[in-house]
Amino acid sequence: MTNLETIYLGLKLKNPLVAASSGLTGSTGKIKDLEEAGIGAVVLKSVFEEQINNEITSLLRKNPQNIAYPEAGDYIRNYIRDNTANKYLDLISGAKKSGGIPVIASVNCVSASEWTTFAKDFENAGADALELNIFYVPVDCHEEPGEIEQLYTEVLSKVKSEVSIPVSVKIGLYHSNITAMVYKLKVNGAEGVVMFNRFYEPDIKLNTLELIPASVYSVPAESRHTLRWVGLVSSEVPEIDIAASTGIHDGQAVIKQLLAGAQVTQLCSALYIKGAGVISSFISEITEFMKQWNFKRIEDFRGRLSYKKISDPLIYERSQFMKYFSEKDK
Ligand SMILES: Cc1cc2nc3c(=O)[nH]c(=O)nc-3n(C[C@H](O)[C@H](O)[C@H](O)COP(=O)(O)O)c2cc1C
Predict the structure, then answer these.
(1) Ligand 1 centroid to 21 CA: how many Å?
(2) Model confidence, pTM
(3) Where are the alpha helices (DSSP H) in the chain?
(4) Each residue's pLDDT tens digit, 133-171
(5) Residue nearest to ligand 1 atom 24, measured at CA
(6) Best of 268, 269, 279, 282 to mutate for ligand 1, by most ligand atoms within 8 A of CB?
(7) So what's the pLDDT on residue 54?
(8) Do you find a cis peptide bond into 325, omega within 30 degrees of 0?
(9) Angle between helices 70-98 and 28-36 (to 10 degrees)
(10) How far apart are CA 271 and CA 275, in angstroms?
């Protein structure tokens, strides 16, 4: 009997497939569909610190009197915060009531300020864990990398002081030392790390000379970047759980991330492009692979090809590129 169960953030999942935070996890109806299709857990669509602030600014701008009267401004700020937060609490409790899979709340944030006071409410509404999507694009050439890293750990520490549920941090790939960054997160209390968030990317339209947003969906080749860092981080920071994310478009990609040491994989673009029905084919591929290798449980092969476990760990390092060319030139 093949058993796909896995533990992520201390939660028991029936399989290592987690629906990543997105519009697909933004309503109880959609979450129910994912659960019926066999997903192991869901990360709810994020509540955005940025979104709350933008709503406040646009309402204040609509009526200049709101700016003239500080009380009106305060009222609007509190109204929006309460409304946005309450809608989110409804989503958490609705998702928990409608099914039996773990529900991970998600916050997209850039600071350790006001929103952290909501974290306890998310826990009270029934969230099994909390994922922090800490999003910061540095544009100031005088800003030191250490200051930016400190922002991540400050947000995390503040949230950890508010909640007792497990907390994971979803990071982007722009860190000068990813393993060191993950280690810092672990030391500051993170139970998990999601590698990686995929940012909204710019493109240029040559016929109009305009800057435009590129496709929001990943392509399968992007999972190889994730693979390298999952292999390295699972070896260097073994105490933290890893959710591999970006470019996971089929069951084989899931198997590879597990072999590199991930606890789970997160799916987003694949679900948008192919629909929830694709989950069963992921499960079949993983089951088939396990049968082929006579693996009874995920633990039988998780991390088997991580950085420290393989005989030629240099493949995880940049030298593979040099090797490729030197062999080709022979
Ligand atoms: C339409 C769309 C909406 C998304 N919304 C969120 C979000 O609310 N919060 C978040 O943390 N990530 C969000 N993401 C990022 C995904 O969770 C995921 O990290 C990213 O798409 C990479 O995974 P993929 O290659 O499977 O798409 C969104 C992605 C897409 C395409």
Answers:
(1) 6
(2) 0.90
(3) 28-36, 49-62, 64-68, 70-98, 119-124, 145-162, 178-187, 223-236, 251-260, 269-274, 278-292, 319-329
(4) 997 778 889 988 888 899 999 999 999 999 999 999 999
(5) 246
(6) 268
(7) 58
(8) no
(9) 30
(10) 5
